[in-house]
C-alpha cells in the first residue's frame, strides 16, 4: 500500500519538476498540445498515464495486468517501452494510428501511419505483445482481465478491423 503512495509521489514530483520547461516550450508552438507519457503503479498494476501541461490530473491510458503479459515480460518494462515509443511518435509530430491484431494474427498493438493499414504493414511499429488468451484491444481500452474474459465468454465480443483511435491521441 505504501508503494502506491511512493510511486504517486515520485510521478507527481517528476511532473512538477518538468512543468516549467514544458510550459515555456508551449508558448512557442501553441498549435499542438504537448503530451507527456509516464508510467506508475496504480492498484499494484503498471499503468501508463498521459500528462498535459496546465492540467492537474494524470489520465490513465493503459494498464498491464499480469494476465495480459507473456511469461518473460515485466509489466513495468512493457509500460516504459510503450510510453517511450508513443512519446517519440508525438515528438516527431507524425500522425499515427493505434491498431490491434487478433490472437490469430499475433495479438499485438502497433502504430501505423494510415487508418487503413494493419500491423502486418512494412512500416508499422509494434508497441507491445499481449498474452494470446486475451485480446490486445482490452489493454487499449484499459479493461480489467475479468471484463475482457467476460465479454469473450458471453459471445458479445466483436472485433472491428478499424484502427483504435483513443480520445487522448493528439491527431
Question: Can you walk me through this structure?
Answer:
- The protein is α+β, with helices and mostly antiparallel strands and 171 residues long.
- The protein has one domain (2-154).
- It is 35% helix and 19% strand.
- The protein has four helices and six strands.
- It has helices spanning 2-28, 75-91, 136-140, 145-154; strands at residues 36-42, 45-51, 59-63, 97-100, 108-112, 125-129.
- The strands form two sheets. Strands 1-2-3 form a three-stranded antiparallel β-sheet.
- β1 (36-42) and β2 form a beta hairpin.
- The longest helix has 27 residues, at 2-28.
- It is globular, with a radius of gyration of 17 Å.
- The relative contact order is 0.13.
- Residues 3-32 and 154-159 have low confidence and may be disordered.
Averaging pLDDT over every residue, what do you get? 75
Please identify the structural class as seen in this structure: alpha+beta
Q: What is the overall number of helices?
A: 4
How many strands, what sense, and barrel or not for the largest sheet? 3 strands, antiparallel
Amino acid at each position: 500500500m505504501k508503494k502506491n503512495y511512493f510511486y504517486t509521489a515520485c510521478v507527481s514530483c517528476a511532473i512538477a519538476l518538468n512543468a516549467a520547461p514544458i510550459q515555456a516550450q508551449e508558448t512557442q508552438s501553441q498549435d499542438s498540445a504537448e503530451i507527456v507519457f509516464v508510467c506508475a503503479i496504480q492498484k499494484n498494476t503498471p499503468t501508463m498515464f498521459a500528462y498535459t501541461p496546465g492540467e492537474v490530473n494524470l489520465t490513465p491510458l493503459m494498464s498491464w495486468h499480469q494476465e495480459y503479459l507473456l511469461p518473460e515480460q515485466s509489466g513495468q518494462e512493457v509500460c516504459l517501452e510503450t510510453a517511450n515509443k508513443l512519446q517519440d511518435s508525438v515528438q516527431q509530430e507524425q500522425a499515427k494510428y493505434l491498431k490491434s491484431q487478433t490472437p490469430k494474427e499475433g495479438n499485438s498493438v502497433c502504430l501505423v501511419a494510415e487508418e487503413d493499414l494493419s500491423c502486418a504493414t512494412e512500416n508499422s511499429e509494434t508497441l507491445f505483445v499481449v498474452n494470446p488468451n486475451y485480446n490486445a484491444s482490452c489493454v487499449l481500452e484499459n479493461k480489467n482481465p475479468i471484463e475482457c474474459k467476460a465479454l469473450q465468454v458471453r459471445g458479445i465480443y466483436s472485433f472491428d478491423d478499424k484502427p483504435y483511435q483513443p480520445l487522448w491521441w493528439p491527431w
